[in-house]
Amino acid sequence: METVDKVDMIKNHGLTASENLEKFLKRIEAKNDDINAFLEVRGEEAIKRAEEIDARIASGKETGKLAGLVIGVKSNINVEDFNVSAASKTLENYTGSYDATVIRRIKEEDGIIIGMTNMDEFAAGSSTETSFFGPTDNPAAPGRIPGGSSGGSAAAVAAGMCDLALGSDTGGSIRNPASHCGVMGFKPTYGAVSRQGLLDLAMSFDQIGPLAADVSGISLALDVISGYDPADPTTLDSSPDLEVERELKGLRVGVVREFLEVTDEAIDEVIQGKLGAMEDEGAEIVELDFGYIDLCLPTYYLINYVEFFSATRKYDGRKYGHRIEDVCGPEVLRRI
């Protein structure tokens, strides 16, 4: 069932929010010890939230765009009263004192926050092996890594533990684990989604974005979390056009030639097939030349490491748990 269809079913009495939640709680109980996708689950609070949504639907009151959907949150995004650890011993006992803007918007649209997902420590990795709380397994390929750094969120969606999950993406940290786990992951355009409440890695690149089992879930989540936020001056005073049913005739789609030159053959076949399908629907495929691509990675790492060092100066042991240099893992220590 498409995510958007599930919302319609909940709103039209075909499925209750409580029934939807119960299914996920059972899957988490059955699978999470082996997968380690969730670091914290708040079942009782989620049940109360689901019951409130069901009561409003039963009484004919309006409900939000995410009514009854169960959502996991990467552990570097502030959720009030949840453990926001960034998967680090540094913040192992830190409790969020407020909701990030994206969390507030999700709650306003009746999404149900179920828990906090595992990740690479401080989002500095691409395997979800560097977490202080242990690695996450890949439910789509048991025994293999789920990618990272939002590996817990991707694994939770892939294992059927939640409808949607939030991750953060600096240099691939949503897209990478989504591809590893066989789910949808999307890094929004810089400024499309507020980063207020995100524990930053490199603020020139960081973006919060969704993971889902299907495109409709991505679109639905983006519709809720995107838009201007006065608490984040980089946000855009507009929201993307997320209409799913839309003609492609006249649409120009750019494809960077250098990207395809280094793409795995099997993946390239899929990409070419999708491009061909878009052409058949009337889209114009335009090849783009990006001559400076070889400079991108070293430039990215230079900016990333400098900004990450700056971001970690607040973890000095005085206010937020432990002094980071005393307790962090080797990958974080290497980067700072």
Going by CATH, what is the homologous superfamily of the largest domain?
Amidase signature (AS) domain
Given this structure, which CATH class of the largest domain is correct?
Alpha Beta
Helix content: 25-40%
Q: In the CATH classification, which architecture of the largest domain applies? A: Alpha-Beta Complex
What is the count of helical runs? 12
Beta-strand residue percentage: 5-15%
Elements, N to C (H/E) = HHEHEHEHEHEEHEHHEHHH
Q: Can you count the beta strands?
A: 8
- Name the shape in a single word: globular
Number of domain units: 2
Distance between the termini: 44 Å
Mind summarizing the main beta sheet?
6 strands, mixed
- In round numbers, the mean pLDDT is 96
Low-confidence parts? none
Task: Tell me what you see in this structure.
This protein is an alpha/beta fold and 336 residues long. The chain folds into 2 domains: 3-246, Amidase signature (AS) domain (Amidase signature (AS) enzymes); 247-336, no CATH class. It is built from 12 helices and 8 strands. It has helices at 3-11, 17-35, 43-58, 101-108, 151-158, 175-181, 215-225, 257-261, 265-280, 293-311, 324-327, 330-335, and strands at 38-41, 70-74, 112-117, 164-169, 184-185, 207-212, 252-256, 284-288. Strand 2 (70-74), helix 4 (101-108) and strand 3 (112-117) form a beta-alpha-beta unit. Helix 2 (17-35) packs antiparallel against helix 3 and helix 5 (151-158) packs parallel to helix 6 (175-181). The longest helix is centred in the first third of the chain and has 19 residues, at 17-35. The protein starts with a helix and ends with a helix.
